[in-house]
Amino acid sequence: MCGSSIPQPNRGFTRNKQCAKLYSEVGESFHLALLQLHLSSIKTSPIPKDGEKSRNDVVSFMDVFNKSMCRTREVLVDIFQEYPEDIEHIYIPSCVVLMRCAGCCNDEALECVPTETKNVTLTVLRNKHQMSQHPFQLSFTQHRKCECKRKEVITKKEYHCEPCSERRKRLFVQDPRTCKCSCKFTQLNCKSRQLELNERTCRCDKPRR
C-alpha cells in the first residue's frame, strides 16, 4: 500500500510510480468536487424577480442608450425664466411641467434642438404683494419634435431670422426652423383680464366699443 513503512525490494520504483499516479487522481477528483460544489451554489442562488431590486442592479446598454437619446421630455421650467420682466407678481406654483427637447447627440458638433413647437396655456395663481391672489393663465412654448443639428448651422439659421418685432420682443414666439412669429399670449390670456388679443401687436388691448 502507498505510505507503508515495510520495504519491498525490487518493487519500490513501480510502487512509487503507482502512488504518485494515485495521489494525482485523488487531487484531480478533489478539485473537481470543489468546482461542482461552486457551480451548484451558483445555480441555486436566487434570481431577482421583475420589479425587485438588488443592491447591485445593472442596467443594460440599450436601456441606457435609449433613455439618453434626443427627444421631447417632461421638464420643470421656472416661470420667471419664461417671464423675466414680470417682477411684480409671485406665481404659484413657481415652476411648471413642459415638454422640451433634451438628450445626447453622441457628437460634440451636434445639439438637441426643437424642430416643431406649439403654445400651451396653463392656469396658475398670481399673487401681487401678498395682497390679492387669483387664477391667471400663462402661455408657454412646448416642443413637439426634436432633432440633432450642427451647432454652426443652427446659429447661421437663427442669424437669418428677422426679429418678430423691434419692440416688446417678449410678446412673440419665433419658430427657429421656419422663422415664423406667433403671439406668446392667447385669447384666453387676454379674456381672463377682460381684454382682447391684438394679433398684430400680440398685446392684450381693451375691447373696442
What does this structure look like?
With 209 residues, the protein is α+β, with helices and mostly antiparallel strands. The chain has a domain at 63-205: Cystine Knot Cytokines, subunit B. The chain contains five helices and nine strands. It has a three-stranded antiparallel beta sheet. The chain has a two-stranded antiparallel ribbon with strand order 1-3. A hairpin with a 6-residue loop joins strand 6 (172-174) and strand 7. The longest helix has 32 residues, at 12-43. The termini are far apart. The mean pLDDT is 76.
Give a short summary of the structure:
The chain is an alpha+beta fold and 209 residues long. The protein has a domain at 63-205: Cystine-knot cytokines (Cystine Knot Cytokines, subunit B).
The geometry reads as flat
At the first level of CATH, what is the class of the domain at 63-205?
Mainly Beta
Radius of gyration: 37 Å
Let me know the number of strands: 9
User: Could you give me the name of the CATH homologous superfamily of the domain at 63-205?
Assistant: Cystine-knot cytokines
β-strand amount? 25-35%
Count the DSSP helices: 5
Q: Could you give a short account of the major beta sheet?
A: 3 strands, antiparallel
Helical proportion?
25-40%
- The residue-averaged pLDDT reads 76
- Write the CATH fold name of the domain at 63-205: Cystine Knot Cytokines, subunit B
Structural class designation = alpha+beta
Element-level helix/strand string:
HHEHEEEEHEEHEE
Which regions are unreliable across 5 or more consecutive residues at pLDDT < 50?
none
Strand order within the widest sheet?
2-4-5
C-alpha termini separation: 123 Å
CATH architecture of the domain at 63-205: Ribbon
Keywords: Angiogenesis, Developmental protein, Differentiation, Disulfide bond, Glycoprotein, Growth factor, Mitogen, Secreted, Signal
Domain Platelet-derived growth factor (PDGF) family profile: 57-153
Subcellular location: Secreted
Protein name: Platelet-derived growth factor (PDGF) family profile domain-containing protein
